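Sorry to interrupt, but I need a hand with the structure work. It will help me judge whether the discrete encoding reads sensibly. Write everything out right here, beneath this request:
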Amino acid sequence: MSANPMPGNTATPAPQPVSQQSPSSRKAPEWRRRFPKLKADPIKNDFQLLDPARLEEMLKTLNPAAADRFRKDIQFLEQPLLRLFRERDHEAYVHQNTHRLFQLSFIILSVIATVVGAFLTLMLTSNATVAALLGVTEAIIASATAALASLQGNRPPQALWLQNRLRAEYLRREYFRYLMNLEPYTSLDEVQRRRMLEMRAAEINMGMLPETPTELESVIASKVNPASAG
């Protein structure tokens, strides 16, 4: 038997994840969130990895010197890293949407081809004119399917989606490593820290990924480069 909540005790809602998705998109059912859009949403140039309001609340608990340094780090991270993260994160979303749009198009074309083929079989002996029109329709569907397959093969959106997602997650990790003053920034002075951050962010953006990936990054990397996995 489950215990009843105490009167007047209301659960604190879980904080929403910080992402470039609109709040309404995150509240939609799972199937709806996975449904592709005909036109991807534009990039949000004001997107922040840390919610400004919650950040200010957190900084109030620090001493003034530490809070001031944290604000300066946040401000510095905008140009060399956060700008690149927004681009890679948005590119990953665009290619993910394109991949799902291709898959949905293939499903729709397959269903239409099946229905047209069934009617074509029925009309072959009863109505030659209708059968001929259905045959032309079937050929058009086959051509459209071949064209989609060619587009997907020339520039596979799934590979580009995973590639950009991997780089975005490395940039996200580097953002918090810098803020928390973790390796490789621990023993550096301020000038060296900033130069190191700029160099590592630029390398990650170009696909030159640093060592010691996280578990999520390892999973994505194994899908992008299956030959290097395990």
